Amino acid sequence: MAKLNSLWRWLPLVVVLVVFTLYLVAIQPHLNSYTSDEIWYVSAARNFINEVGLGRYIAGYGVTVAPSPPCNVTSASPSIYYKDYLMAWYSNVTYTQLRNLLDNPSCIVRFGYYYPDKQSIVTYLNIEHPWFGKYFMVLSMLLLGDKPVSWRVPSMVLSVLMLILVYYIALRLSNGNVAYASLAAVTLLMDATFRDVGIIALLDIYVGFFTLLTVYLYFTGRYTSSAIASGLAVASKYPGAFTVFSGAYLETYRRNGIWGLAYLAIAFIVFIIPQLPIVYLVGGIHNYISDVFFYLKWFTEPRPPGPVASNPLDWLIGIDSFVNNVTPPLYAMGLPGAYLVALAYSVMLIEPHVKGRLFNEVNINELSIPVTLLTIWLGFWLIYFLGDTTLYSYYTMQFAALVPLTLVLAMSRAKPKAKIWIILGAIAGVAYGISVQWRILHSLIISIA
Length: 449
What we know:
The chain has 449 residues and is mainly alpha-helical. It has helices at residues 2-27, 38-51, 95-102, 132-144, 148-173, 178-189, 192-197, 204-219, 223-236, 240-254, 257-272, 276-281, 285-298, 312-317, 338-350, 352-358, 364-386, 402-413, 416-436, 438-448; strands at 63-66, 80-82, 87-90, 108-111, 322-325, 330-332. A four-stranded antiparallel beta sheet has the order 2-3-1-4. It starts with a helix and ends with a helix.
């Protein structure tokens, strides 16, 4: 009987994972080339593979040469010629045909899948973002091949792990309440940004996963491990720094400022280590630091006109969502409504007077969930007010998994008189988010059916 009850407790998670897996299998054939910002991250990963001398392992997927002309492959016609950028991609050539080009220092030879048609893409290393997340793409391309589905395998694996972690944490927060844990998993599954970003090779899935891992480790009392995970979050993408600051604040509050500084120091060391190969490739620490400061300044300035931009308030109500793909429709809409309610509950759980009236005791480890959610959201407002008014809705991937956990924490800790209203607020927020994206969901199902 005990075993049966235990299996029943995990059945909702199995159902959610089956649904998500079917979605992954159904949609990938429709995304058979670069999708959204994969053009930058995958290209940088391929260039890294070639720069460190591992290009031969992806040579079966073609070769790109530049400038072309004069660097043309002997006795072969390119499958794709990029006239504006003087590049040529050959789908099938031999080493003998390439020998002269490989020995010519004025020619660039890149093995692998064809590149997007962008200026200087064959030398681009995506220095504007940290490199830890892109190493996952490098490894996947080397092990599974240089093709679209391979680029995305790490993203899909991390997405599955996020669903599992959210369900497990929700169970612990609610003392084994299957209904609350199920709501948490379904809420994350229905988050359009999670479904959108979690299936393609963007960096936001990495910062989102390591942010969730940071919170999980802090919640379970593994503070040093939490600092390490937060370092991996910022090593994946700079907004991971918000995750680090949240952990440092919690450590300062829980113990003292020295421990907060120690948390920051551990995270900084972890951040630096994955960048070392890139420091070497760009010609040393001086060049690397110059590039980092240039791009940090760039992150506080508006981008040129292009994709639909938004601000952190837009994310809460689901307007001006970033479009990652049109057919099938991938709109990083998040789960508006649920975001708004979760942020409101975060404030209520943190503010002492409101917390005392509405909630039973919430310990500092549990507070890591709403504190981190609020810190990230306010952090993006800081970037916005510093001058970068072209933020994009897919940034919500960093805190998407914290939204259902905040709802569960509020529902499970609510005092008897407030509980019904807290539960109704959570359900209303989730229902609103699903209703807002219903047309997109319908179009998505039709497209991949």
